[in-house]
RNA sequence: CGGGGCAUGGCUCAGUUUGGUAGAGCACCUGGCUUGGGACCAGGGGGUCGCAGGUUCGAAUCCUGCUGCUCCGACCA
């Protein structure tokens, strides 16, 4: 490809709307343009990257026994009514009606579609397992699309759905996908971790997220400093510690704490540490029932754990009226002295506390010497808090570390949730009718491209891993007027093409600086510079984008060196 | 959904407070000059100032309504 032909309008300045690095660089490198909030056109360079990622995915899916198909993006409402997700998805689903007033949606995902497809065709265990996948646009009407391709309303997803006759079969399919994903992200040249995660609303149980590590990532993960445990903080389990409390339990005492509604105010006033206080957080579920969560003052409530613990569909912060209705006093809440309407959930670590301070459910008053085991009544104890750096690993007990990342893929054991609601059954070896056991495995393709940039960039632009770079090499003749340089560049260009290298020749009549800036911005892994020395001394300059290293070779041996560099990038 | 902010040429923005008929830099076109890190000089093209009303002799500027974009929040009582 010649730059004069390439449609990649680069920008010198960063458009105001772009906040995160990948968004800025995708715009500046002439790779994407916005069509509407969260909806983008992929220009040629971006499309090449996406196709490369897709190719890697296809190869690994096929090796794992997957078969690719294509399903409708426009999906009839009836299917979604069958699983109840027409309502559950709510505002997040793009809906439309046809001329006959029939309801449809733009598929946010394809569990319904795929399950309805095979429920009529798969009748026997002999036809299983079945692994089908698609790579297509999906649609979610996000409340707040942002971060460019990271959280769009239209995005490219690969989804594979597995159908097995039993749990054992699902385990095999799951393992295949887990391994395939490990291969995919490794081949893409990304630093990532598979982490244990919460199932969320897709329903089902066991799941791993494949998280591309990047400080700008939206998900927070913990990983063990010793063993291979890694989990999303939402999921990370904390076990009851076996510490022995020697402190003697003192009698409960009411103290005045005028206008001290925060942990900090109270503990400062009392000369205590926040670890000695009990923090209350009030929620309401979808039925408007009040749920009061209690954690240690220095801890934070993990609302996913809380949601699971109380079986809530949704949770939101409780309003003041609701708190008062159950006998709570905002700012001074505790499990002591509530009316019975509230569900009280207490974190494990709170139960280990002695002589703690907490609210009294009276205005401007707290209790000292609160001993949960003695003083609390009618409550549920569970693991409720967010894990912090240094907390013990649930597997080996070593302190955990935290980092951030971008969730690029997820493997999920669905079980029979969809096959039951959609009546997708088969006959097993004993002639008994059973629901198919399903799994779903997604990769955000467009998001993976953005994640790759978040993880691989510097002050000059993108630094593509070679496997997914739009082109591997750019050839730049330095002096636009020098026909000898151009002619040498042209020869190198031809030779590289003949050697099956994806190469761009920057044949623009621009000054060297412009070409260098664009090359850095677009992030070609290797830059070949043709300058005066190439004419006079037969030397070819090769610069590695990532390391900045510069090598000089002759016209006869540059090619083999480029090829070997590409293999190692 | 709540609260900010913004909307002026392809991009980044000034001009709005105090109404007087639209500007800069970059980009683009022409010519010259330059050529190893986003040059320079000269000339040129391009904007119903988001949309719809209103006030006024006169509106980018003031008023009303709408739309779009964007940021923060929607967790520690």
TrEMBL record:
Residues annotated as domain Aminoacyl-transfer RNA synthetases class-II family profile: 38-465
Keywords annotated in UniProt: Aminoacyl-tRNA synthetase, ATP-binding, Cytoplasm, Ligase, Nucleotide-binding, Protein biosynthesis
Membrane spanning residue stretches: none
GO BP of this protein: prolyl-tRNA aminoacylation
EC code(s) of this entry: 6.1.1.15
Catalytic activity: tRNA(Pro) + L-proline + ATP = L-prolyl-tRNA(Pro) + AMP + diphosphate
Molecular function GO terms recorded: aminoacyl-tRNA deacylase activity; ATP binding; catalytic activity, acting on a protein; proline-tRNA ligase activity; transferase activity
InterPro entries listed in its UniProt record: aa-tRNA-synt_IIb, aa-tRNA-synth_II, aa-tRNA-synth_II/BPL/LPL, Anticodon-bd, Anticodon-bd_dom_sf, Pro-tRNA-ligase_IIa, Pro-tRNA-synth_IIa_bac-type, Pro-tRNA-Synthase_IIa_type1
Domain of life: Bacteria
Cellular component per GO, a single term: cytosol
Chief place where the protein resides: cytoplasm
Enzyme class: ligase
Subcellular location, record wording: Cytoplasm
Subunit structure: Homodimer.
Family in the record: Belongs to the class-II aminoacyl-tRNA synthetase family. ProS type 1 subfamily.
Job description of the protein: Catalyzes the attachment of proline to tRNA(Pro) in a two-step reaction: proline is first activated by ATP to form Pro-AMP and then transferred to the acceptor end of tRNA(Pro). As ProRS can inadvertently accommodate and process non-cognate amino acids such as alanine and cysteine, to avoid such errors it has two additional distinct editing activities against alanine. One activity is designated as 'pretransfer' editing and involves the tRNA(Pro)-independent hydrolysis of activated Ala-AMP.
Free-text domain note: Consists of three domains: the N-terminal catalytic domain, the editing domain and the C-terminal anticodon-binding domain.
PANTHER family listed in its UniProt record: MITOCHONDRIAL RIBOSOME PROTEIN L39/PROLYL-TRNA LIGASE FAMILY MEMBER, PROLINE--TRNA LIGASE
Name the record gives this protein: Proline--tRNA ligase
Organism annotation: Propionispira arboris
Phylogenetic classification of the source organism: Bacteria, Bacillati, Bacillota, Negativicutes, Selenomonadales
Gene that encodes the chain: proS
